Amino acid sequence: MKFDFAIVIIAVSMLGIGLERCDCKMVQFIFGDSLSDVGNNIYLSKSLAQASLPWYGIDMGNGLPNGRFSNGRTVADIIGDNMGLPRPPAFLDPSLTEDVILENGVNYASGGGGILNETGSFFIQRFSLYKQIELFEGTQELIRSKIGKVEAEKFFQEARYVVALGSNDFINNYLMPLYSDSWTYNDETFMDYLVGTLQDQLKVLHGLGARQLMVFGLGPMGCIPLQRVLSTSGNCQEKTNKLALNFNKASSKVVNDLGKQLPNSSYRFGDAYDVVNNVISNPSKYGFENADSPCCSFGRIRPALTCIPASKLCKDRSKYVFWDEYHPSDKANEMIATELIKKFGFKRVDQTQSSSPSPELAPSPTSDD
């Protein structure tokens, strides 16, 4: 009997067969920036991209900062809730364990992060998409050691994946003279570099088991309050918006092509530009009164960049599209999520599991830190 048991242990070690059987749930793995960050940057002590001070999180839970760059929920929170998916915790959350991952998935999103490694370098610490993918590989090792290679492969292939980055690659890289990319490339060559890098990253994710994946494009990032206040007119910066539209066009083609080329893949592109643009262009239609300035601001001193305890809040947060200079308010995220659910036909996972798989995912929208 002892000899037989030893053989079993050896087989487990060599073949990756788990001693535990996994009755795994459908979960999400989210790769993103500050629009999807649920607390990773809080644990990056040297990062300058932080949502760790009041009044962030004032309208969520206990009202204390929780790492989200808003007064409340992210779009991913809201869509995931509507789909019956668990909210993935931050990768750096100290309470994260193998059991938590199997129950909830993981969120690797990091404020200031981009598709390119050099993006957001002046924030000092942040996770680029390549770094997030590296962390995901570590997650896979943990799960394989927990449930074995076969069950782990099934778990990761049945999961949903969201990739939502790109705004920082423009706003906190190409459009800032402090970054070498701003003078190394022109609009066309930078777009080729950026989208080509994204294509390589999506191939890596497929190799790691990502079969049902949605990539979200950019919204009118030239209309965020920071871009408006930096313009001479106070209007949206159309050059920046054009870059967003060109990125969406190029990355949409890449995602669609990969969906045809990569085996057993269901890859989709989520173009949220028109959804967010409609809310910004016609705020009263959606119940808003202000779509060009932040609810949380430092009086007349602008741009204040982040919301801090000394900042003043607008009288009614539900009437403002933007919470700070970069990010939508909870109410705007709710409106954007509702419109995205309509546009992409997201369904509850308990309504899709019995049918052929499709990437019913929880996305993040557009403008960024």
From TrEMBL:
Q: Give the UniProt record's GO annotations in the biological process aspect.
A: lipid catabolic process
Q: Which domain of life is it from?
A: Eukaryota
CDD domains assigned: SGNH_plant_lipase_like
The record's section on Pfam families has: Lipase_GDSL
Q: Return the annotated region ranges for Disordered.
A: 349-369
Has the keyword Metal-binding been applied to this entry?
no
**Which intervals carry biased composition (Low complexity)?**
354-369
Q: Which GO terms describe its molecular function?
A: hydrolase activity, acting on ester bonds
**Record key words, sorted:** Hydrolase, Lipid degradation, Lipid metabolism, Signal
Q: Where is the signal peptide?
A: 1-24
Task: Return the InterPro entries for the record.
Answer: GDSL (IPR001087), GDSL_Est/Lipase (IPR051058), SGNH_hydro_sf (IPR036514), SGNH_plant_lipase-like (IPR035669)
Hey, which family's this protein in? Belongs to the 'GDSL' lipolytic enzyme family.
Among PANTHER family, the record links this protein to: GDSL LIPASE/ACYLHYDROLASE FAMILY PROTEIN (AFU_ORTHOLOGUE AFUA_4G14700) (PTHR45648), ZINC FINGER PROTEIN (PTHR45648:SF8)
Q: What is this protein called?
A: GDSL esterase/lipase
